[in-house]
Every structure is written in C-alpha cells, then in structure tokens.
Design brief:
Elements lengths: L1 H19 L4 E10 L18 E10 L2 E10 L11 E7 L2 E5 L5 E11 L1
Antiparallel strand pairs: 1-2, 1-4, 2-3, 3-6, 4-5, 5-6
C-alpha cells in the first residue's frame, strides 16, 4: 500500500513538472517602438558615440496579457517582427523568449505586463 501511494506521488510530481514547463505559445505583436538613444553624462559632447545597439519596446499579446519587453539589438530590427505579426513566445518570469524567423530564440527582458 505504501509503495502504491509513493509511486502515485512520484508520478504526480513528474507530471506537474512537465505541465509547469512553459511551452511556446502564439503571440501577436501589438507595437514596436524604438527608444531614444541614452547618452551617458560623461559622453555628452559633439562627438558621435560608438554605441551601435538600438533598444526597442516590443508589446506582444499572449494568453490574455500584453507584455512590454525590451529588445536590444545591433543593427536592423528582426525583419519578420512587424505590427500584427504572429510570433512564437515563451514567458518565463521576467523573460520572454521569442522565436525568430530563422528558428533561433531571442531573449527579451519583460519590463511590464497588463491584462489584454
């Protein structure tokens, strides 16, 4: 009897672990806004800065919530990421993993979320 209870408990914990592992879901890009470049105080001069990283606020609706995430990128924005586009996303705490068109995953920092 104890073995059966223990086996059931172990099976339940394994299933709970599998279910809790967040799978990728389909999200929809609501908006993408490029942030203004932030120049450090010591670098405020007429000289151009060497910062080639652009910051974007990307709002993605998934599972009834609008997530605003920070996307830091060198160069042009991911071409497939446009307003209204569907993307595969995985929310894990304060991080959102977004699959790019090439299948690679981009990690974005979630800065806010609110109900859809």
């Amino acid at each position: 009897m104890k073995l059966q209870v223990l086996s059931t408990l172990v099976l339940f914990l394994l299933l709970a672990g599998i279910v809790s592992a967040e799978a990728f879901q389909t999200g929809k890009i609501i908006s993408i806004t490029k942030r203004e470049a932030q120049v450090p105080n010591k670098a405020r001069s007429d000289q151009p800065t060497s910062n080639t990283t652009d910051d974007y606020d990307v709002v993605i609706a998934v599972g009834g919530t609008n997530y605003t995430a920070l996307y830091r990128h060198h160069g042009d924005l991911e071409p497939a990421w446009t307003q209204g586009a569907e993307v595969q996303v995985q929310v894990a705490g304060k991080t959102m993993n977004v699959k790019k068109a090439n299948g690679k995953t981009e990690k974005l920092k979630i800065v806010s979320n609110k109900p859809d």
